[in-house]
TrEMBL record:
InterPro entries: BamE, BamE-like, BamE_dom. Part of the outer membrane protein assembly complex, which is involved in assembly and insertion of beta-barrel proteins into the outer membrane. It holds the Pfam family BamE. Part of the Bam complex. One of its GO terms (biological process) is protein insertion into membrane. Keywords: Cell outer membrane, Lipoprotein, Membrane, Palmitate, Signal. It comes from Tibeticola sediminis. It is a lipid-anchor. It comes from the Bacteria. Residues 128-179 are annotated as: Disordered. This is Outer membrane protein assembly factor BamE. Belongs to the BamE family. The keyword Signal applies. Residues 164-179 have a biased composition (Pro residues).
């Protein structure tokens, strides 16, 4: 004789899980802050493009060849087949919580020689490094620790002469076993 399986405990468990999920959903919607205000995802610092410093731009001279400009500034970020006479150097610095910084320098050529250049006010190399690595806040001075005299160990007498060491052996055993 076979007995039918009693499914009441499974139904009660499923009903309890549905009830718990409903209650937790209603509780979450009622008064908690939005999840994006509580949990902040990690946003990486983004440095992209070709950095051109104020010193590099100052070294540009009309009449320089394309190779000389490439040696000085590096390869351009943007070149176009339709605008062969123009190279664009673009640099972005994006930090979480700060406005994005963008720097541009455009170099124009005529007959393969540098004619002119124009662009944004570029930072110097030291200014750029300071933007990348701002100084961390200085920590507060730690409190000066004071040990009571009775807690200090007793001073040891000074040794006048070091103790003689054991003589070194004339021969050492081999490192690998001999067969």
């Amino acid at each position: 004789m076979t007995f039918p399986l009693d499914r009441r405990p499974a139904r009660l468990l499923a009903l309890a899980l549905v009830a718990a999920a409903s209650i937790s959903t209603l509780a979450a919607c009622s008064g908690l802050k939005r999840i994006d205000t509580v949990v902040r995802p990690y946003r990486a610092e983004l440095v992209q493009g070709n950095f051109v410093s104020k010193e590099q731009a100052a070294a540009l001279q009309p009449g320089m060849s394309r190779e000389q400009v490439r040696d000085l500034l590096g390869s351009p970020l943007v070149t176009s087949l339709f605008h062969d006479h123009r190279w664009d150097y673009v640099f972005y610095l994006r930090r979480p919580g700060e406005a994005a910084q963008e720097f541009r320098l455009t170099v124009f050529f005529k007959d393969g020689l540098l004619e002119r250049f124009e662009g944004d006010e570029l930072p110097s190399e030291s200014e750029f490094v300071a933007r990348l690595y701002p100084e961390p806040p200085k920590p507060a001075q730690p409190p000066r620790l004071r040990i009571p005299e009775e807690a200090l160990p007793a001073p040891r007498p000074a040794a006048s002469e070091p103790a003689p060491s054991a003589p070194l052996p004339e021969r050492y055993p081999p490192l690998e076993p001999t067969s």
